[in-house]
Amino acid sequence: MELNLEGKVAVITGSSKGIGYYTAMQLVKEGAKVVLCARGEKQLQVAASCIKNETGEDVLFIPTDITKEKDCKRLIERTVEHYGRIDIVINNAGTASANPFEAVSGEVWQSDLDLKVFGAINCSKYAVPHMRKVGGGAIVNVTAVMAKTPPASSLPTTVSRAAGLALTKAMSKDLGKDNIRVNSVCIGLIRSDQIENRWKSEASELSWEDYSRKVGQSIPLGRVGDTQEAANVITFLVSDAASYVTGTSVNIDGGSGHAL
Predict the structure, then answer these.
(1) How far apart are CA 107 and CA 26, in angstroms?
(2) d(CA 12, CA 20)
(3) Domain count, the chain
(4) Which label site among 120, 154, 237, 260 has the fewest CB atoms less than 10 Å from its CB?
(5) Do 173 and 50 fall within a single domain?
(6) Whole-prediction pTM
(7) Which EC number(s) does the record attach to this protein (predicted)?
């Protein structure tokens, strides 16, 4: 299968670690030019160095607070100044914040929406004109499978992630005429720093594979997902192999979700 990512330029938010980092690595291996962004410069330097060591390719990294519109604008402008174009935006930045409704303060609501909703809006808004100039592009909004069927005590994350799904569909309708595709992925239980810390504190005597199966007993595939598995799906969605896919969401959850 030809992904045709050679020479494409991708901006990935929240890419100093986790799904963003693995997706960046995969895109570089497929020939894309990648811009890493996150708040922490030191972690970005480490991520860029690791990608360089494994692939031999340099990546640009730009410390960015995407809760600030001016930072989003600067991120896109610096990307275009450096590479001359932009083809892909992956709105991956986010945190897990899950509490009962009455326990969520106004400040927490605003912070979550600024990061997960307005961050995606602003990064996309400033990238779209540059995508038009090169004949199209691809945007992926990383959301959560719980956004489709929110459980109790899952606020504000499920609300902001549900907004990301609505944003994806609406953007796909508006931007399809410009050959700009917009999709989302809904993440389930994927290997992360948080899960690894639980493993080391709760069951360090188990191998990761055994712990993954233990934690994933309620998941139809019977295990925790690997970060690379999420990166693979995102890479497909931004590639030419998915050229007729837009306005949809893909669950990366091992079958645990209760909605398509």
Answers:
(1) 36
(2) 6
(3) 2
(4) 260
(5) yes
(6) 0.97
(7) 1.1.1.100
Could you list the residue range(s) of the whole structural domain that residue 95 is in?
Answer: 9-190+228-252
Q: What is the pLDDT of residues 161-204, one digit of tens each?
A: 999 999 999 999 999 999 999 999 999 999 988 899 889 999 99
One-letter amino acid for residue 144 of the chain: A
Q: Which two tokens stand for residue 31?
A: 């020939």
The verdict on residue 82 lying in a domain is yes
95: confidence class by pLDDT, cuts 50, 70, 90: confident
Beta-strand ranges (E) seen in 3-51 are: 9-13, 33-38
Task: For residue 150, say if its preceding peptide bond is cis, omega within 30 degrees of 0.
Answer: no
Find the largest Cα–Cα distance for the chain. Answer: 55
Alpha carbons 222 and 238: distance in angstroms, whole number: 28
Assess whether pLDDT exceeds 90 at residue 88: yes
Residues 88 and 204 in one domain: no
